[in-house]
């Protein structure tokens, strides 16, 4: 069991679990074989939805595994941000203004050192466009020659950016110590987490752990007709070899049509389909593999 201060914090909001730190995301993937799903919009390509950024959304089974293994803690994220006092807001605003003024002062001190080779591209582009427009506007012999209307001049100083800080580390507005939970039971008692709460959810956690302990990477399998996709290595490098379906009990009824569907679907997607039966009394998993063998 690792020390609670060294465990990865998992932020819980509306009983959904997120990881915000990039370093923590790398650790759980490389060390614990937990991938999750990136759900954040990238700042410069906010309209696309293929390549996403932080936060990382975890499946409930991944959360339970990490917490029960002592690798992570659950943080009640809304409570970790207490409402700031007027004095804290004033201090934060002063720090912001001081940072902006400092950046402006540095930029103003450097603007006199620019050379023609370091002029901003926007200024050079505006100058060239003005010259082209003046050449096009040159009157013909039949037209009356008039003075071109002067355009608004562009500053000769190099352009610079001012970064406005969004937060200040000195404010300490994030205070998770009083709302951090090192076990699933304590998080349930606090009302921030309730998974697993029934037999089917316990079965999913048991199957997930069983496959994970065999060295597999796990991902959501709904697109392939199962509960999980099972990978032999990191999904960035390997295709999944199995689709897994969770059965709540070894005595649960399974219709013949379900077996046929799972077998044909697995073959069509070049995967075998796993039927994973959870025994809640013995806390054990029995796994069967289905492959379609009728090739003609």
Automatic annotation (TrEMBL):
SUPFAM superfamilies: tRNA-intron endonuclease catalytic domain-like (SSF53032). GO terms for biological process: tRNA-type intron splice site recognition and cleavage. Signal peptide: none annotated. It is an enzyme of class 4 (lyase). The keyword Transmembrane does not apply. It holds the Pfam family tRNA_int_endo. GO terms for cellular component: tRNA-intron endonuclease complex. Residues 8-77 form the TSEN34 N-terminal domain. Keywords: Endonuclease, Hydrolase, Lyase, Nuclease, tRNA processing. Its EC number is 4.6.1.16. Residues 107-158 are annotated as: Disordered. Residues 121-140 have a biased composition (Basic and acidic residues). One of its GO terms (molecular function) is nucleic acid binding. Residues 107-120 have a biased composition (Polar residues). The active site is at residues 231, 239, 271. The keyword Hydrolase applies. Residues 204-282 form the tRNA intron endonuclease catalytic domain. CDD domains: tRNA-intron_lyase_C. InterPro entries: tRNA_endonuc-like_dom_sf, tRNA_intron_Endo_cat-like_sf, tRNA_intron_Endonuc_cat-like, TSEN34, TSEN34_N. Constitutes one of the two catalytic subunit of the tRNA-splicing endonuclease complex, a complex responsible for identification and cleavage of the splice sites in pre-tRNA. It cleaves pre-tRNA at the 5'- and 3'-splice sites to release the intron. The products are an intron and two tRNA half-molecules bearing 2',3'-cyclic phosphate and 5'-OH termini. There are no conserved sequences at the splice sites, but the intron is invariably located at the same site in the gene, placing the splice sites an invariant distance from the constant structural features of the tRNA body. Belongs to the tRNA-intron endonuclease family. PANTHER family: TRNA-SPLICING ENDONUCLEASE SUBUNIT SEN34 (PTHR13070:SF0), TRNA-SPLICING ENDONUCLEASE SUBUNIT SEN34-RELATED (PTHR13070). This is tRNA-splicing endonuclease subunit Sen34.
């Amino acid at each position: 069991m690792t020390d609670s201060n060294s465990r990865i914090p998992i932020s819980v909001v509306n009983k959904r679990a997120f990881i915000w730190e990039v370093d923590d995301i790398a650790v759980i993937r490389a060390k614990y074989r937990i991938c999750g799903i990136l759900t954040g919009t990238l700042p410069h390509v906010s309209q696309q939805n293929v390549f996403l950024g932080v936060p990382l959304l975890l499946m409930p089974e991944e959360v339970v595994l990490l917490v029960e293994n002592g690798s992570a803690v659950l943080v009640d994220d809304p409570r970790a941000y207490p409402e700031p006092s007027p004095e804290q807001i004033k201090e934060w605003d002063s720090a912001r203004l001081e940072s902006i003024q400092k950046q402006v002062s540095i930029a103003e001190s450097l603007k006199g050192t620019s050379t023609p080779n370091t002029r901003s591209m926007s200024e050079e582009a505006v100058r060239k466009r003005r010259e082209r427009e003046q050449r096009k506007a040159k009157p013909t012999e039949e037209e009356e020659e008039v003075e071109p209307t002067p355009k608004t001049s562009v500053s000769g100083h190099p352009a610079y950016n001012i970064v406005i800080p969004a937060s200040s580390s000195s404010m300490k507005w994030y205070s998770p110590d009083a709302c951090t939970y090192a076990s699933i039971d304590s998080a349930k008692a606090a009302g921030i987490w309730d998974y697993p709460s029934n037999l089917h959810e316990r079965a999913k956690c048991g199957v997930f752990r069983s496959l994970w302990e065999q060295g597999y990477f796990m991902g959501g399998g709904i697109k392939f007709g199962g509960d999980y996709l099972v990978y032999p290595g990191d999904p960035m490098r390997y295709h999944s070899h199995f689709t897994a379906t969770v059965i709540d009990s070894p005595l649960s009824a399974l219709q013949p049509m379900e077996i046929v569907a799972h077998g044909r679907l697995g073959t069509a997607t070049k995967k075998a389909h796993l039927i994973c039966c959870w025994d809640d009394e013995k806390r054990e998993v029995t796994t069967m593999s289905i492959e379609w063998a009728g090739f003609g």
